[in-house]
Specification:
The chain is of the alpha/beta class. The chain contains 25 helices and 14 strands.
């Protein structure tokens, strides 16, 4: 009789007295358990009964068919088909499909090999396994296909259904639990025959496939992730009920709340693509060497960790068995040396310290690169986006996003990956050095820990998002109040602002309370699972020591190693939470990166070489929104050196013409030309280099006057800056200030008067020396006396240059070569000042009205 329960008889030998169930299995060519003995005893020969185990596993799979088919039927009846353009393309999804197909093919192949090659006889248990596994895997393939192509509108969580995740988790756990019979001769783990090695290979394949399915399943790649409702097509949307379009309008910055309750792992591929340039410092060999050295140190740390408790065990065993001093001191030196490399807890070791030192420059590179790229991207966005942005929210998003990228790289590379490696090494070591029970205890404890961490963290994600949203609102409110402090003072609204800010803080703290409370619950759950595993393992190890199966050093080894393993594992939940937090904090920053450039240069754009400065509008039509047309067939030509003026009521489109010439927006139809060149075919930088603007509301940087004027041409010398100031008639006023050109102008230039700010703007434009000058109501906010003084400076700016002036006071443009009267987006009158007065139209009415207002103002002044 062979070892284990596989029994063969020689015809020349008498049959031994066997248990009834084994006799039945050998006397018949077909039985329920076949050659694997009986259903009981459950534990024999250092392992589980294979007949018992496969029967229980298959029975549960048959029960799982009910919820699987229920979900399939629900998807078929209530699901709505998703258009192919909304199905995410993912290699991970294809890997999922491949694993499911391999699991399905493996079932009949394994059944055939077992029947025809290994056992040469089938059994009821094998047939039950064939039917149960085939049915469950086939139903899983069907459900996976439906989840890819259909969506339940009422489903709150977008991704794989709970039964699908449970199926994959169950398939994985069944293969892992087989390792409890690692030392059993009834199974095929320890068998060396080719036939048994084939079965072992099938087990390895099932383990790998089920592990991939379960791991990837949490991110649900390939499954449509629509935020709130299924986006079918433009014609299928419920316009009547006011359903919003899924895609935000260009230029509308969304807050954190727009991400809803979806998992922060969604869109992982897109996030990884954005993160990769910051993870690997391409083009910097010095930093690349540092990264590789950090990786080598991580590998060295994984090698060192198992040997620390092993040498500690050797010391204890050496002392308890009276080993010679030559043996003990070597073990002590090795232990102390390894402990010096490892450190205590999460810090203090030579390896961790060296890795942290090498990573400093890499982290600084990442920090700088993220901020510079995002800053450059924000400056590339259109005027439409900047007009609709919330400055406080954007700044908070940049700050949190930058910090979160550094944290994310550190947590994943130096905490999560090493911890997972340590866990795998520990499981393998306990199975090989102790027995499968210890490996099973560690695996179950870690599996429960990770599952609880993931589930609870995903649940509390919405609290963190809500807290970030309210934090943004509170900070935005504070920044708005401080920026508009003059208005607050004017209306004596300090108490109102304080109350509003206090309410915003209270609202934020409500969400903060929920976030911190859920964190306490998570920590308590993790601590309970960890200590339960430590208790069970310690009890089992202590029992083996009392039974003389283990030495005292083995108990010390288990306790030391498990505590050493649980130390980083105790932080694993923190790492996962921090990664979740980092992803949440990055979402706003990713939204900023995703903001498209509304105005961008074409690949074949040319550099504009302006020679004469001719400006031409040819049937230009433009609208900010489709509902309202702003400009309608605007046509005019400004010859080199001429001055054209635009007048009309507010909202008629005058300033829009200026913005279109500067190409802040692209027109819907028509052409704008400079020197007979379409401005849409030239680079924006070369176009704007030829144009100088004196805006209506001049905003200065919080810097000194010298640098504010120099902003017109960054490379200008101090002498050139002073010449521009003299030309704009502000030089003498600057010299009268205590700090002269070093005088700080304050936030937005508030320390200067309106006339002084306008003269600084004029000096900027003079320093730039553009070929075309645009004056956008540059003196409308000034008093009459200041306006007259500045007009002389403006005349010097426009002398010999092509100029377009948007005027509020008609007296400032009486000498213009041509005046265009704009009304509701159309040019209704054009001509010189005298010609328009002779016509007696709209311009004449505006002129007479301003004359009357001026006379009334003079009379009122005399009366006073």
């Amino acid at each position: 009789m062979n070892s284990g329960n596989k029994i063969e008889f020689s015809p020349n030998l008498p049959r031994p007295n066997l248990p009834h169930h084994v006799t039945m299995a050998t006397n018949s060519s077909f039985s329920y358990c076949g050659i694997h003995g009986g259903f009981t005893p459950i534990w024999r020969n250092n392992g589980l009964s294979q007949c018992f185990y496969d029967t229980i596993i298959s029975g549960i799979l048959v029960l799982l068919l009910l919820p699987l088919f229920y979900q399939i039927n629900k998807m078929r009846k209530s699901g709505v088909a998703v258009e192919s353009k909304y199905k995410p393309r993912s290699m991970m999804y294809k890997l999922q499909v491949l694993c499911m197909l391999l699991l399905f093919i493996e079932v009949p192949v394994s059944f055939g090999v077992t029947w025809g090659v290994v056992d040469h006889v089938t059994s009821g248990m094998a047939i039950l396994t064939l039917v149960a596994r085939s049915g469950a895997v086939l139903a899983g393939c069907w459900l996976l296909h439906l989840e890819r192509n259909m969506m339940l509108l009422a489903l709150g969580k977008k991704g794989h259904s709970g039964i699908m995740i449970f199926l994959w988790g169950y398939l994985l756990s069944t293969e892992v639990l087989r390792t409890t019979s690692w030392n059993s001769e009834e199974w095929w783990f320890q068998q060396q025959t080719p036939q048994q090695q084939i079965l072992f290979g099938f087990w390895v394949g099932r383990l790998v496939c089920s592990s991939l399915l379960f791991t990837i399943g949490f991110w649900s790649p390939g499954v449509p992730k629509l935020n709130y409702w299924l986006h079918l097509s433009e014609d299928d949307r419920d316009v009547e009920n006011g359903s919003e379009h899924l895609n935000r309008p260009r230029g509308e910055f969304s807050g954190l709340g727009s991400h809803g309750d979806r998992s922060t792992w969604s869109g992982l591929k897109e996030k990884a693509v954005l993160l990769w340039p910051y993870m690997w410092p391409s083009g910097n060999f010095f930093l690349q060497v540092r990264v590789m050295m950090c990786v080598v140190i991580l590998v060295a740390g994984r090698v060192v960790n198992p040997y620390v408790p092993i040498y500690y065990k050797n010391i204890v065993n050496g002392l308890t068995t009276n080993q010679p001093w030559s043996y003990v001191w070597v073990q002590v030196c090795a232990y102390v040396g390894l402990k010096f490399l490892q450190g205590s807890g999460m810090s203090g070791g030579l390896l961790n310290g060296l890795r942290s030192y090498l990573w400093i420059r890499v982290q600084q590179y990442t920090n700088r690169l993220v901020q510079v790229r995002l800053f450059s991207h924000l400056h590339s966005l259109s005027l439409r986006w900047h007009l609709s942005r919330k400055t406080g929210e954007v700044l908070r998003s940049i700050d949190r996003g930058t910090i979160s990228i550094n944290n994310l790289l550190s947590y994943i590379v130096f905490n999560i990956i090493p911890t997972i490696c340590d866990i795998m090494i520990a499981i393998v070591y306990f199975i090989t050095a102790f027995n499968a029970w210890f490996g099973l205890i560690v695996f179950i404890c870690l599996a429960l820990y990770l599952v609880a961490t993931i589930i609870i963290t995903e649940w509390r994600t919405k609290f963190r998002r809500d807290m970030n949203t309210k934090d943004n609102k509170a900070k935005q409110r504070a920044i708005d109040s401080l920026l508009n402090f003059e208005t607050v003072k004017y209306y004596n609204a300090e108490d109102h602002e304080v109350r509003t800010f206090d309410e915003a803080i209270k609202d934020y703290q409500e969400s903060e309370y929920l976030t911190n409370t859920s964190l306490v619950f998570l920590n308590l759950s993790q601590n309970t699972i960890i200590n339960a595993g430590l208790f069970v393992g310690s009890m089992l190890c202590a029992r083996y020591v009392l039974d003389d199966k283990f030495q005292i050093g083995d108990f010390v080894l288990f306790g030391t190693y498990i505590v050493q393993l649980y130390t980083p594992l105790g932080f694993f939940g923190t790492y996962y939470r921090m990664i979740q937090t980092s992803f949440i904090d990055m979402e706003n920053m990713f939204d900023l990166f995703k903001e498209g450039e509304e105005i961008s240069d074409e690949e074949d754009s040319i550099v504009l070489q302006l020679k004469t400065g001719k400006v031409e509008f040819d049937n230009v039509c433009f609208s900010y929104t489709p509902e309202k047309q702003i400009l309608k067939n605007i046509s005019f030509t400004v010859n080199p050196g001429e001055t054209y003026a635009l007048v009309g009521s507010s909202g008629s489109g005058k300033s829009t013409i200026i913005r279109l010439l500067f190409r802040f927006y692209d027109i819907q139809s028509g052409v704008i030309r400079l020197d007979n060149v379409d401005i849409s075919t030239v680079t924006q930088q070369s176009l704007r280099a030829c144009i100088g603007v004196v805006p209506q509301d001049t905003v200065l940087f919080n810097d000194n006057i010298m640098n504010n004027i120099r902003y017109g041409r960054i490379s200008a010398r101090d002498e050139e800056v002073e010449e521009a100031a003299q030309a704009s008639d502000i030089h003498h006023r600057i010299l009268a200030m205590p700090d002269k050109y070093e005088t700080m102008v304050g936030e937005r230039g508030l320390k200067l008067s309106g006339g002084e700010k306008q003269r600084v703007a004029i000096a900027r434009t003079l320093l730039k020396a553009p070929d075309i000058v645009l004056l956008d109501e540059a003196t409308s906010a000034l008093d009459t006396t200041t306006e007259r003084n500045i007009q002389a400076s403006l005349s010097r700016v426009c002398a010999g240059r092509t100029s377009i002036v948007v005027a509020h006071r008609l007296s400032t443009i009486v000498n213009a070569d041509c005046i265009l009267v704009v009304n509701e987006g159309e040019i209704i009158e054009r001509g010189s000042h005298d010609e328009l007065l002779d016509i007696g139209g709209i311009y004449n009415e505006m002129w007479q009205q301003q004359l009357t207002e001026t006379s009334d103002a003079k009379e009122n002044g005399k009366t006073k």
